[in-house]
Write a structure and sequence with these properties.
631 residues, five-stranded antiparallel β-sheet, 33% helix, alpha+beta, nine-stranded antiparallel β-sheet, elongated
Length: 631
C-alpha cells in the first residue's frame, strides 16, 4: 500500500473537523463532554530523522507521512489505544512481558508464515502508544511489504486474543477513522460530508440491489457498514444471506417491527430450531427476542411452527400466489418445478419497506427454504425486482437428474446409498398411498427434513400389536415428473429375505404399481447382495424377479428390456449392474425419483404395512434385539 499519493494533511484535517466526543466520553466538572481535538502540529524533518537515528531504523513511509502532518494523535479507540505518541515518544517494545514465548509455534507443527511473523514481532516491534487500556500499538519492521510498509499489530492485553493485524500504519489509521464514525453514528447531531456521502452510497446500493446489480451494491454497503451508517447492516446482511442461505445474519429490532416481522422472526426461529441458537435453549432465545421487542407469545408461536415444520411463508399479492403454488409442487418432490415458479415470479416481488431488498422469508419456509441453494440465491440477487428493471440473469441449471441411476451413487460423502426400496403407483395421488399400502390408520405427516430425520420405523418389539416378523417402513411420499406417486424408504435398514411380500399388488388396485428393493449389504459371502423388481396391475402381479448374487428367481412375462439375465452380468461390478437395471426401469416404465427432495428437501411420510409375511409352517424365523445397559 503506497503512501506516496496519500494526503495525510487532508485526511487528518477532515478527521479533526468532524471530531466530536463519543456518547460515553468523560465529562468535566460541569457535566459536559470535553472536546479534545485529536491532532498536534506536525514534526519537522529534523525531528523525524533524529528519531530514526535514535532507533537505528528508517521509519516506514506511511508513518513518516503521518508524523509530518501530526506529531501524535488522540485515537480514542474504545477500550484499547487512546493516544499515539510523536517522534520523540516512540521506542522499541522489547517484549517486557515475554509474549514471544507464548506465541512461539511448535517447530514440529509446520507453522504458517503468519504465525512465525507474529512470534517474532514482540521482540522486533516499535511501540507507538502513550496512553491505552492495557493495550499496545506495535509496528513490526520484520513484517513488511514491497512498499516498505510495516505491519501494525494492536494487542489488547485484557482480551487474551491474538493481536489485530493491519498491513500498514495507514491501514490502521483508516480503520480507526471508520471506527470513529461507527462509534458516533447514532448521534443525531453527527452530520458531516463523510456521513452524507456514505448515506448516499446506501441509497444507491439499495437501488442497485433491487435492479439485480448486487455485485455493485455490496462494496458500497460494506464501506457504509464500516462507517456504521444506518440501513447499511440490514441491507448488507440480506445480500450475504442469499449468497450463503443458511441461518440468520442478525436483524436487530426488525423481529418486532410489524412490517418486517413476518420475514425476519421466522429466520431467527429457524436458527434456534436447527440447534444453532443460544446455549440457554428456547428460554434464552425467547428472552433475546423479547429484549429486541418481540411479543413473547408471537415469538413462541413462530418458533413452534418452524420447529414442527408447519410454518408457511405467505406474502401478499402475485408473489404470494406464486409462493403457494411453488410450495404445493415442492412438498411432493417437484423441487425444480417449484424453483421455476419462484424464479418466474421474482420480478413481481414487492419490498415491504426501505429496509428490504430480497424475499428473506422464503428461506425460513420449511418446504421452500431448502430449495434456495447458494447458486439460486445468486440468481435471486441478480434478478430485478421490487418495481425495478434490468436484464434477467442466466438461469442456473436444474438440480434433479432424470431417471433413477443416481440411486447407484455416489450418494453422500462419495459413498453409494446403503440400500433402498420404493413403491410407484401410476397416475395416483400421493395422498392415497397410505390407504393403499399404509398400516392401519396411517396418515401423512407434515413435510419433514429427510436429511435430519432418521425416519426409522419403531421396531416390532417396541410396538404393541406388531408381530416380531413384521417389517414396517417409514416412507417419504411424492410424485415424479412422469406422474407416478412414490413411497421411498432409503437407506433401507432391512434385508431382502425369503419372507418378503411385495406390496405391488396391494398398491395396484387402480392401475400399475412397481416395487424395487436394492439390498447391497453383505453379512457374509453366503449372504450376497440382492435386487428385486415386481410389477402389478389391478391387484394382480404381472411379473417379478429377484437377483441374489448369481441366482435369479423370476415369474410372469418379463419384458425383454427388463430381463435380469441381460441386465445383471457376472463379469460387471455390482454397481454397474445396478445402474443398468435402473436405466432400464426409467426407459421401459418411465420411473424416476427426485434426488434433491429425497436428500436435502422435505417430504410427507407415513408408515407402511409389513414388507414381510408371517412365517409358514416349517419356515424358520429369528428376531434379535439388543439393549445397552449402563452399570
Amino acid at each position: 500500500m503506497s503512501s506516496e499519493s496519500f494526503n495525510w494533511h487532508e485526511f487528518l484535517g477532515r478527521w479533526q473537523e468532524e471530531w466530536v466526543p463519543r456518547p460515553d466520553a468523560d465529562e468535566d466538572e460541569n457535566g459536559e463532554q470535553t472536546l479534545v481535538r485529536p491532532g498536534l502540529p506536525g514534526a519537522d524533518e529534523a525531528a523525524i530523522v533524529a528519531a530514526e537515528e535514535r532507533l537505528g531504523r528508517r521509519l516506514p513511509p506511511s508513518y513518516r507521512g503521518f508524523l509530518a502532518a501530526s506529531d501524535g494523535w488522540h485515537v480514542d479507540q474504545t477500550a484499547a489505544i487512546y493516544q499515539l505518541g510523536g517522534a520523540a515518544d516512540i521506542d522499541w517494545f522489547q517484549d517486557p512481558y515475554d509474549m514471544a514465548s507464548l506465541y512461539e509455534p511448535d517447530p514440529g507443527d509446520d507453522p504458517r508464515e503468519e504465525d512465525v511473523l507474529l512470534a517474532g514481532m514482540w521482540r522486533r516491534a516499535l511501540r507507538l502508544e502513550t496512553d491505552s487500556d492495557m493495550s499496545h500499538a506495535l509496528l513490526d519492521p520484520g513484517d513488511s511489504d514491497q512498499d516498505g510498509e510495516w505491519a501494525l499489530y494492536v494487542y489488547k492485553g485484557w482480551s487474551g486474543e491474538v493481536p489485530d493485524r493491519y498491513p500498514s500504519f495507514r491501514a490502521y489509521m483508516e480503520a480507526m477513522y471508520r471506527g470513529f464514525h461507527a462509534d458516533r453514528a447514532a448521534r443525531p447531531d453527527f452530520v458531516n460530508a463523510t456521513t452524507l456521502t456514505q448515506d448516499a452510497h446506501v441509497d444507491e446500493a439499495h437501488l442497485l440491489a433491487l435492479r439485480g446489480r448486487h455485485e455493485e451494491a455490496m462494496p458500497l454497503l460494506e464501506e457504509a457498514f464500516s462507517f456504521g451508517r444506518p440501513r447499511s447492516a440490514v441491507l448488507l446482511n440480506q445480500l450475504r444471506q442469499l449468497l450463503a442461505p443458511s441461518g440468520s445474519q442478525g436483524y436487530g429490532g426488525l423481529v418486532a417491527d410489524p412490517l418486517y416481522q413476518p420475514e425476519i422472526l421466522p429466520l431467527e426461529a429457524m436458527e434456534q430450531a436447527n440447534g444453532r441458537g443460544p446455549s440457554g435453549g428456547d428460554e434464552q432465545w425467547l428472552r433475546m427476542m423479547v429484549a429486541r421487542g418481540a411479543a413473547p407469545e408471537i415469538a413462541e408461536a413462530v418458533l413452534g411452527a418452524v420447529r414442527d415444520g408447519i410454518h408457511q411463508y405467505a406474502p401478499p399479492g402475485p408473489w404470494g400466489r406464486a409462493v403457494a403454488e411453488a410450495r404445493e409442487a415442492a412438498r411432493w418432490g417437484a423441487t425444480d418445478a417449484a424453483w421455476h415458479v419462484l424464479r418466474d415470479a421474482l420480478p413481481l416481488w414487492e419490498a415491504l419497506g426501505s429496509l428490504m431488498v430480497v424475499p428473506l422469508g422464503l428461506l425460513a419456509d420449511p418446504v421452500l427454504g431448502p430449495l434456495i441453494t447458494p447458486e439460486r440465491g445468486r440468481e435471486i440477487l441478480a434478478t430485478p425486482r421490487g418495481g425495478e428493471t434490468g436484464p434477467a440473469p442466466e438461469p442456473v441449471p436444474d438440480l434433479d437428474p432424470p431417471g433413477l441411476t443416481w440411486l447407484a451413487g455416489p450418494f453422500r460423502y462419495g459413498q453409494p446409498l446403503d440400500g433402498y426400496r420404493c413403491v410407484w403407483v401410476e397416475g395416483a395421488d400421493p395422498v392415497d398411498l397410505p390407504a393403499l399400502i399404509g398400516e392401519e390408520g396411517a396418515e401423512l405427516s407434515p413435510p419433514v427434513d429427510l436429511s435430519r430425520s432418521s425416519r426409522r420405523a419403531p421396531q416390532p418389539h417396541e410396538r404393541e400389536g406388531v408381530e416380531l416378523w413384521e417389517d414396517r417402513a417409514v416412507v417419504a411420499v411424492g410424485r415424479t415428473a412422469e406422474e407416478w406417486a412414490f413411497a421411498f424408504d432409503g437407506p433401507s435398514h432391512r434385508h431382502l429375505h425369503g419372507l418378503f411380500l411385495s406390496p405391488a399388488a396391494a398398491a395396484s388396485s387402480s392401475g400399475r404399481a412397481v416395487v424395487v428393493w436394492s439390498d447391497p449389504r453383505r453379512s457374509s459371502p453366503d449372504d450376497p447382495s440382492a435386487f428385486h423388481l415386481s410389477v402389478a396391475e389391478h391387484g394382480q402381479e404381472l411379473y417379478a424377479f429377484t437377483v441374489r448374487g448369481t441366482e435369479i428367481q423370476r415369474s410372469g412375462a418379463i419384458p425383454e428390456t427388463l430381463d435380469p439375465a441381460r441386465l445383471f452380468r457376472p463379469e460387471d461390478t455390482e454397481r454397474d449392474n445396478e445402474r443398468r437395471v435402473l436405466e432400464a426401469l426409467h426407459t421401459e416404465l418411465g420411473l424416476s425419483l427426485p434426488r434433491f427432495a429425497l436428500t436435502q428437501g422435505r417430504l410427507h411420510t407415513f408408515t407402511t404395512r409389513s414388507w414381510t409375511r408371517a412365517p409358514r409352517a416349517g419356515e424358520g424365523f429369528a428376531y434379535i434385539s439388543f439393549a445397552r445397559h449402563q452399570s
